[in-house]
């Protein structure tokens, strides 16, 4: 995926959006940012992408105005990545992908990976886009999340495997190409 610097050849908003976020890795990086991962290593571990792939996606997302870099260390220089208002605007798409994936890509025995509670009514929100209990639209700031035990174990295993690979020289723990 490259940064879309040309004038779009279509008025179709779906085609234009796809030019910015239309690959698996960009969507997975966005998922991690929404889940609270802000550092390169955290994002890399949970997406299972290569350092170059994740670095390229982050650079493109920064150029497209979806994320902003903020330094968290001066020696060595390291950055965190935070969603901009444009990036935050992708949340409804993440909710829709989550709902579709929970409905069509998993068996009922697997259970829901993340259970959201709607702060306004205090009840489980369901899969959205409206709260199952009160019918209000689901907004990121009005939700609390609880990760299922199975999904938490999966994420922990990925993080531990990444740490092990990094110690063995198979993965980089630096901001590859991000300086």
Account of the 3D structure:
- By secondary structure, the protein is α+β, with helices and mostly antiparallel strands.
- It is 44% helix and 15% strand.
- The protein has helices at residues 13-21, 24-34, 40-47, 51-63, 85-88, 91-104, 149-167; strands at 67-74, 77-83, 114-118, 123-124, 143-147.
- The strands form two sheets. It has a three-stranded antiparallel β-sheet.
- Strand 1 (67-74) and strand 2 form a beta hairpin.
- The model is unreliable at 171-179 (pLDDT under 50).
Could you give a quick summary of the protein structure above?
By secondary structure, the chain is an alpha+beta fold. The protein has helices spanning 13-21, 24-34, 40-47, 51-63, 85-88, 91-104, 149-167, and strands at 67-74, 77-83, 114-118, 123-124, 143-147. β1 (67-74) and β2 form a beta hairpin.
Which properties best describe this structure?
single chain; globular; 7 helices; 179 residues; three-stranded antiparallel beta sheet; two-stranded antiparallel sheet; disordered C terminus; alpha+beta
* Biggest sheet details: 3 strands, antiparallel
Radius of gyration: 18 Å
Based on CA inertia axes, which overall geometry fits? globular
Low-confidence stretches: 171-179
Assembly context of the chains: single chain
């Amino acid at each position: 995926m490259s940064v879309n610097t040309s004038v779009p050849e279509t008025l179709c908003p779906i085609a234009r959006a796809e030019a910015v976020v239309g690959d698996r890795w960009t969507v997975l990086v966005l998922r991690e940012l929404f889940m609270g991962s802000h550092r390169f290593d955290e994002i890399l571990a949970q997406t299972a992408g290569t350092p170059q792939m994740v670095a390229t996606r982050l650079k493109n997302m920064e150029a497209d105005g979806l994320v902003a870099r903020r330094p968290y260390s001066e020696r060595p220089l390291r950055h965190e990545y935070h969603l901009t208002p444009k990036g935050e605007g992708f949340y409804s798409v993440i909710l829709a992908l989550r709902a579709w994936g929970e409905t069509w890509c998993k068996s009922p025995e697997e259970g829901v990976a993340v259970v959201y509670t709607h702060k306004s009514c205090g009840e489980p929100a369901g899969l959205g886009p409206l709260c199952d209990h009160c019918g209000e639209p689901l907004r990121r700031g009005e939700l609390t999340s609880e990760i299922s035990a199975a999904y938490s174990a999966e994420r922990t295993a990925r993080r531990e495997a990444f740490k092990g690979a990094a110690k063995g020289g198979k993965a980089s723990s630096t901001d590859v190409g991000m300086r």
